[in-house]
Batch of 4 targets.
Target 1
Amino acid sequence: MTHQYVLNGSGSVRDEELFCDRVIGYLYSRVREQAPAVFRAVVSARTSSLLGFVNYDLPLGARLSGGESLVRRLGIDLGECVEEPGYYTTPRRIFERRIRYDDVRPMDDDPAAIVSPADSRMFAGSLNDGSVLFIKDKFFSFEEFLGRRQWVEAFAGGDFAVFRLTPDKYHYNHVPVSGVVCDFYEIEGDFHSCNPSAVISEVTPFSRNRRAVTVIDTDVAGGSMCGMVVMVEVAALMIGQIVQAYAVEGYEPAEPMRQGLFLSKGRPKSLYRPGSSLDVLFFQPGRMAFSPDLVANQFRGDVGSRFSSWLGRPWVETDVRVRQTIGRISATSNGK
């Protein structure tokens, strides 16, 4: 079955080339059902790292032609990158490329803007059962996903957004809001694929993957003033590591997440070592509103999304770029 998404801005519909789609479909159907021990081994940390090495670290060859072929297939514009084209001698270097984001991913200077953390396919959701965006325990179990009870209670009834990074995407994550880190922790887990076929085959798959949770207090001096915001980075198949690497300018010097660190909106926060993966943002009730065009795209009935077939109603992703505005602080938000 084709999986489609909406291209932001133009509203045009595109077919997604799902990498290793037949393999993933086979793994999450016959292998999972008939050889569960093999399936568990495949989604383990050891196997994910090994697959990542085989696919991303072996040299492309003495000639650049191997790299050029991969770049063309993925539609990557090396002109956006910090390094010169000759630097990209392995698939890993291509997938972990750094871009001139101030130039090629401009950001709205409106302080009320909340921005996308990644080049990705995005959809919005709500934990409030009275919202048209409400969806319960499909992509994740909220309580299990965040792990710590204090944050589960703080974000109950709020809104969330999921950003699915495909292998061709730029794999740095950027900060969606400005504020101070008040908590950071990592949760161990597996490395399930983020391919839509895998997602709809598993029950709350994101809750079982390895993930890093950053809680940001934006109600501080210089902050975005939209309450507490949680950013969760979720590892997936062939992602060996989530590297926390916040940088105030460019990409260096980079520093890890820690309590008390002030994060500026739009700056690099972390890097996936590489493959497919996703980010999830959580917002407290009434503190923000998603961009109307993104919400409208999500309910389009003319788009062939696998998520729509699974949920029994339109549920469509929009292709967004890192630092693009995805919502704004609510007009009723008073900063506390």
Target 2
Amino acid sequence: MKRLFVYFIFSTILFVSYASTKPFTVVIDPGHGGKDPGAMGPNGREKDINLNVSLKLGDLIKQNHPDVKVVFTRDVDKYVPLQDRSNIANKANGDLFICIHTNASKARSAYGSETYTIGLDKTNANFEVAKRENSVILLEEGYKEKYQGFDPTSPDSYIMFEFMQSKFSDKSIEFAAYTQDEFISSKRYNRGVRQENFWVLHQTKMPSVLIELGFISNPIEERFLLSKEGQNTMANSIYKAFAKYKHEYDKKNVAANTNIATTETPQPPVSKMDNFNQQVSDSKVVYQLQLFITRKQVVDSKAPDFRGLTNCTFYEEGGWFKYTYGSTNNLDEILKLKNSIKSIFPEAFIIVFHNGKKISLQEAEKISKQK
């Protein structure tokens, strides 16, 4: 019995030691800086708001989560090239990338907070945000070579993102949803979780979001974002979202390291649909469109969430209900379907399953070539 107890203690120490060598790393990226002021308001500059909120967020994480490593892409007022921000995050082997920005609009009445993940939401408003944030690369010498010919002002350049499928999409959306929930709790106007093509998110190899705190072009919001109270409110909201995300992360990783299954492997939901009734084989890769995720199940098939689509289905994963549309073994067919619903679900993205396990598009391509 004594020997068994000693063995248990020794095993626990080994486990803790192993875990401690792999700290959770969050990378906080205050947008703009130095020669790049970002959006300008009558009384303030975006770069200053971004930095102040980022530093407050980092302090909150350090104070409450000493086990977490916090990395900043900048912690002073200096210019950091866009690609370098992604490189810093990847070199740090980050587990979460939080990019913080402040919005602006020609319409001074625009207000509220929104969180972006990488994606192809082709709305004009979202593209204007992406174009503005990506245009920082124009300040760099030789940007055409460095950014592979990418022109942030040209819609055609964004075609390069079309077939990008990040294996971190779900985790990014999960953190984004937590963030918007906390903004709502803080009485901020909720502009929602959105998707667009930000270079800095495209290049990071981890769950990544870009947060637009509010509109510096709106006089009321500018006063709020420049105030100590406003910056504390925004930092606290993002911190609470981080705490929720980290809690879920810890639960899953402790379970994995102790061989305890927290949830069953999600099975690919198969829909029979009007004008889209493919014969689906689970032994092949199965392509579907993910529409949205919720914490509570949507029980009404005619709920506004579906925007008029019928025969949608869902699967559960990580405490989320994830709603999908379509199911086929053919990539071309799912691309056609995605194109057919882009006017009502521009944020829909492709997910892939193989034998009940979710995989990336790159993995699906390899499997298809093997067969």
Target 3
Amino acid sequence: MRITFLTIFPESFSSFLSYPVIRRAVKYGLMDIGIVDIKEHADGCFRAIDDSPYGGGAGLLLRTDTLSAALASVKSPSSRTILLGPKGKRFSQKMAHELAGEEHIILIAGHYEGVDERFRSYVDDEISIGDYILTGGETAAITVAEAVIRLLDGALREPSPKEESFEDGILEHPQYTHPATFEGKSVPDILLRGDKERIALFNETEAIKDTIRLRPDLLKENRDFPHLSLHKGYGNEKDIIRWLGSRLPLPEIIYDDEDYLILSKQKGKPLSFSARNKILNTSAYILKRLWSLDTSGCPCDESISSTISKLRRSKLGYEDWNKLKELERQRIKEEPVFSHGSLRLGSILANGNGLSGLVNLQRAGTADRYRDLASFIPSLEQAGIERDELADILGIKIDDEKLAFFSALADLERKASLQISYTDN
């Protein structure tokens, strides 16, 4: 791999080239580093590299003729040219991995007020390392180069661990060394016991908690980790898990706050991976078990009136708003049971002995059983199982009108899911 810097201050890179990781990468032939002085490609005895902007304005701009000449001196068909500047995409670890696979990267360090706008047509990408102002792009170019170089096989004496910050999209877990106690603060006891499995779980938990506390912007959606699962905007799930207790095989709550819920990861595979008969029999079993639970004290009301009330507070489109009004006019007789709320084959985990876990309880609560049938029958049909086969095992006859009503209601809930507040139950 080659990295070439284009700069008007080549001396800025002398300390970078002395970094142990960089020296090691060059020494062992993992990469080649070149520095091009843009001034060497300026015309005239005064070597004009910059000038005042047309139309007026403070500062100086790097000239496009000088920049393009410097770029042409090193660019080849295999080169990826990158301008460091504030208009670029925000640099990330993911981007560093992408660049590490390139044959030749050319990093162009802007300076002064920036570059002539026409020069942007000569580059492949523009990258920014953050929303702040630097005197020149040299520091930014060094930052990008170092992040890329350390990813090359052999650049580090020991392989970079996957637990490092940003490698898995979260911050690295807290770490400790000697002394075990300092000024009354001790290393967490679990790290001193040598139980690798418990230490791994502890580190993963602490890494997620630190990310929630310090960089919640990294947690844009629900995620599964090796030992845990993270739920953002978790709806009813925390209250339902606590209420159900050990009555069903549910995840354990590891940590919770107003916005995030960390749960233990259930063992087993989604029921959709099972054989046809197992899918049908386990589905019927879990539905019967859910509907037979005593709902006394259930903390979450998911009845028709409660659901419609939440939908009325959401931002539905004009057509969906009319559909909601139409559903309000219908008179559906409810028979309250405990409902999962969004039951699908992927919500049921199974092992060789049958049911091993139940997940995704964000919409669970007291509701009519057709709320479960409306969400579950389409999932079952995707596995090639007809609804009447399920109905026969359950000992019920499907009411088409009621099923259509709850299917329409579920469809509106899905559309409004980002706006619905689940805290008003």
Target 4
Amino acid sequence: MPVDLYIGGPEHAVGHLIYSRIWNRYLYNKGLAPTKEPFKKLVHQGMILGENGIKMGKRFPEFVVNPSDIIRDYGADTLRLYEMFMGPLEVSKPWSKQGVEGARRFVNRVWTFITDADNITSENNDALTKVYHQTVKKVTEDFEDLAFNTAISQMMIFMNAAYKEGKCPKEYAEGFVKMFSCICPHAGEEMWEILGHDSSIAYAEWPTFDEEAVKEDSVEIGIQVNGKVRGTVSLALDEDKDSALSKAKEIPGVKNFIDGKTLVKEIYVPGKIINIVVK
């Protein structure tokens, strides 16, 4: 005591917040409980609605989704991944059969890549280094914030990059599986064993990321002409003003608005924006 994190639905707020807090305060006042409040943090998760957006229940039994049926048809890992990928934890979301099928495809996609020995290599050409470290950083931080949907999105980005490259260093594959297993523990445990480990992945050390490796070499910034955005340009983080303006003026959407005009002012805020004023 106190509990670090308590997740409870708003429909049970009376039991969660009144009974538990009142009884805890009574026991605290009697010197029998160590803390005034029983929970350090409370998070209310949203409800999963029927496909029509209406709350599942006895009134609309035809829209009720039985978790056992989903596990039977798609597997428990797919159910877990889909529910966490539907949206922010605290928001109510409608069920979608297409969404479940999409989640299943991603689980299969991960399994197919990781379990193919030809895809896993002991060599590292650094092609996946940046996206791997970005993935470890984002997933780690998103898990802390209970932002599971965006963590899964980042895992998808990494897996797309791995497929595009065709090879993945074993170190990165293992780090990915460690993160993936938090969402899909059954597939994660199996893949961990296939990668050559005898002990459970539950006891494996969490992957770490290199801050230098996650830094971007370039940034996409907007180009304004007379206060309206007319295009974007990719610039190096240390791009000088003359070079940045030169590249910006070659963007077709910008060029059309400045050709034949008198230049009044040019503003370049590195990493932020380019503003060109003409008349």
